[in-house]
Design a protein that fits this description.
Elements lengths: L8 H31 L10 E2 L5 E2 L6 H57 L17 H50 L5 H33 L5 E4 H19 L2 E6 L3 E4 L1 H17 L6 E9 L2 E8 L31 H11 L3 E6 L5 E6 L4
Parallel strand pairs: 4-6
Antiparallel strand pairs: 1-2, 3-5, 6-7, 7-9, 8-9
Helix pairs in contact: 1-2, 3-4, 4-7, 5-6, 6-7
Amino acid sequence: MTPATRWTVRLRLTLLYGGLVLGTGALLLCVTYVLADHVLPFVKVEPPVQPDLGGAITRPAMPVTGLQNGPARQRAEDLRQFLTASVLALALMTFVSAGLGWVVAGRVLRPLRTIITTTREISARNLHERLAAQGPDDEIKDLADTIDGLLGRLEAAFQAQRAFVANASHELRTPLTFERSLLEIALADPGAGVQDLRAVCERALAGNQEQERLIEALLTLARSQRGLDRLHDVDLAEAASTALGSAREEAARRGLRVEVELGAACAPGDPTLVQRLAANLVDNAVRHNMAGGWVRVWTGLDGGRPALRVSNSGPVIPADQVDALFEPFHKPAADRTGRGSGLGLSIVAAIATAHDAQLDTWPRAEGGLQVRVRFRPA
């Protein structure tokens, strides 16, 4: 069916209006005809009175059939004319109602056509545009507002993607540029010895390891945002214990006191991702701390849900900057030149979302941060 003859909403509404008028009109006509058939009187013809010779009045038999059939024939003709006129009136009203239905449907659907046209013209280059529908607060305006909300989310997602790509490119390009400079300087020095070249290779290898960690973090983030294929029972206490084992050396070097309370807590999830979530939280608590500070790790049931809670001392974090900590490549001002890619907490947020877990964060008034992740019950 071509676009010109396809069953559009306007055409379907027009046919619906016309069909409703035709159906109700036909029903009304039938009822009216039945009523008229019962209301019109049946004329009974009496024979003429004739006196007999004795003075008595007698009524002869009705020999004249035409006198009886005349009124009945007239009554039938009246009903026929009434039915014909009613059918013609019904046909005319059906035609008129279809035309009016076409006009009314066009006016009602005009805002919808405007929405369709405007939405088709919006692309990735002008996602900032909105429908901004005016008029009564009806279903069409609700549809326009819903599309505006969707466009807003798409615009935010595109902007976040562009920022992510730009930040990832910067994070990957910086160590590559540094390694290239090291190698070029070493090769340009004709008097460089074995020890000098070895030192350059070691520094390049360290930079390569940083790139490897960054790429692994990017892959973990992408995997978390994709969602989970299968769920397994994950012991949060075991995941936290493993994370603490990897961070104890760094905590001891910084002089941090580690307090541990690992209660039974089993949650459905991906063991690798949950382990990464715990490791990132512990690593973040150790790294963004102060000399002689502390780190607390707790697992157990919180409100009937298995939970992991990591708290730490450290610098004061303004409440309005807490959400920014979970953005990719965000680094506190004091850690701009330090070790880390700025993906740790963003990976935590992505893993929590993938597990349908509740992530809560509170900045401590004395300094530091408390992060709680509550998983669904197993």
